[in-house]
Amino acid sequence: MYYMGLIWEYLKNYMKTRLTYRADFWVEIISDLLFQATNLIFIFVVFRHTDNLGGWSEAEVLFVYGYFMVPYGIFSCFINLWGFSERYIVKGEMDRILTRPAHNLFQILLENVDPPSLVGSFIGLIIMTISGAEMGLVLEWWHIPALIILALSSVLIYAGIYTTLTSLSFYSDAPTGILPLMYNIQGYGRYPVTIYNRAIQVLLTWVIPFAFVGIYPAALFLDRAEMHRMALLTPVMGLLFATIGLTLWNFGVKRYRGAGS
Amino acid sequence: MNSAFIDFMRIRFLTMLAYRVNYYSGILIYTLNIGVYYFTWQAIYGSSGEIGGFTAAQMTTYVAVSWMARAFYFNNLDREIAADIRDGSIAIQFIRPINYVMVKMMQGLGEGIFRFLLLMIPGMIIAILLFPVELPTAPSAWIGFLVMLFFSFIINSQINVITGLAAFFVENNEGMMRMKRVVVDLFSGLIIPISLYPDWLSTIMKVLPFQAITYLPGSVFTGRVEGTGIWSVLGIQVLWFVLLLIPMVLIWRQARKRLFVQGG
Q: What are phi and psi of B55, to 5 degrees?
């Protein structure tokens, strides 16, 4: 309850600052969508020259991309750890956070919420609906709870991976470049993993499981029997990776001793 | 006068060299990007022999060389200029006896030399080891490609300078800069070679300067343009270099008249 109240207060604050700069708000939404549009244009152009991508049709690939956008939007909204090292460790803001009673990670996430990212999730849902309709996919009762559970599990996977990597900044001053690197790896999850070679497939499934933020869970709705087991594994992987991330984070915080300025 | 410009280039090069470790992950990022497109194209080519005039081998080479060329020509001159304008430090630049735009171009060149030697070349070697890249055999292709690569850098920097200077006219050009980045990546042929777009779109792209950044040098490197054809694609680049000078100069002249520093 205490935490719910905090969320509300932080969001009120966020709205106050954002409404001061309304133009920037729209600029951010539109340019975010432009980056996504690049990938969509790639899919559209490529399918003018072929009718399948590793056995997946255009509508299926689009559907997977639509799904990919949903958890990604939620993740970017609530878990925004870019620049953590500079802002909280180098500048010493972590000290301020730690003197307060609420959990430190919770405060950091709330200070950096970015609701405009959620627009991406909505567009993702629209893409899923359109491409689903094109394939004659009928909406069944279990689709909605399944989508909610799977999308949240995918968000947990992102959360786990990114908190794990961000917690490295408690140990080293310069983990520069790891986060952008991850960002580029996650792009691999938007296409059918079967097009990659064996090593990359294993990597994307078990080590940096970005296949669970796109292709595997999306396959459940597409009736791709070969990936059903993987799709059902998504919540397990999500919980597992989120636990790893949170544990490493708490461990890192204990080690934190301030920048000492 | 000239030696001052050389110094700006040298200092930027040395600054980047001092922080080189921060940039090494860039090599991996570019390799990852080549990877995702390489595998996707492999899957697409599975059934067909030639797409948009590219064989599968040419496409691999094209993807690798295009991304690694981007590792060289990419810079943030637009952001640097916009930041100078927004925080008002541009005023100091005005009272200096050297041309600000030239200073920025030379700094960009210093960065470019760093990126060429420490990102593009090692990156290309890694790409050749990982993916079946076919290097050109004709010396004319190598020379032509290297000369054109230099013009890619200049044209891309010119576009960056123009976008950055736009901050003089609109208070926040963040959106413009992001949009420019998407347009350059798409219209230069980096994401998809221009010959694969629908006809109406590729016709438009061929009369825009962006193809000179990636598509034309890439075509020379993959051997799709050879012999005397290299001269004509190089000619297109030189033409765009000259044409882009016009808006650069005009905007710069206009901008000086209407400098307006916020707050302070």
A: -80, 165
Are B40 and A189 within 8 A, CB to CB? no
Does B174 sit within 8 Å of A24, measured CB to CB? yes
Q: Is residue B161 a part of any domain in this protein?
A: yes
| In a domain? residue B113 | yes
* B235 and chain A in contact, CB less than 8 A: no
> What is the reported pTM?
0.89
Query: What is the number of domains present in chain B?
Result: 1
Can you give B190-214 as a three-state secondary structure string?
CCCCHHHCCHHHHHHHHCCHHHHCC
CB distance A27–B172 less than 8 Å? yes
Please, are residues A43 and B188 in contact by the beta-carbon 8 Å criterion? no
Domain of residue B252: give its range. 2-257
pLDDT in tens, A124-148: 999 999 999 999 888 888 999 999 9
Instruction: Give, in order, the Cα–Cα distances in Å from B47 to each of A50, B56, B144, B198.
Output: 8, 11, 33, 21
* B182 vs A38, A50, A191: nearest CB: A38
The answer to the question of residue B26 being in a domain is yes
Q: So what's the ipTM on this one?
A: 0.87
The 3-state secondary structure of A58-86, one letter per residue: HHHHHHHHHHHHHHHHHHHHHCCCCCHHH
Q: Which two tokens stand for residue A13?
A: 């604050």
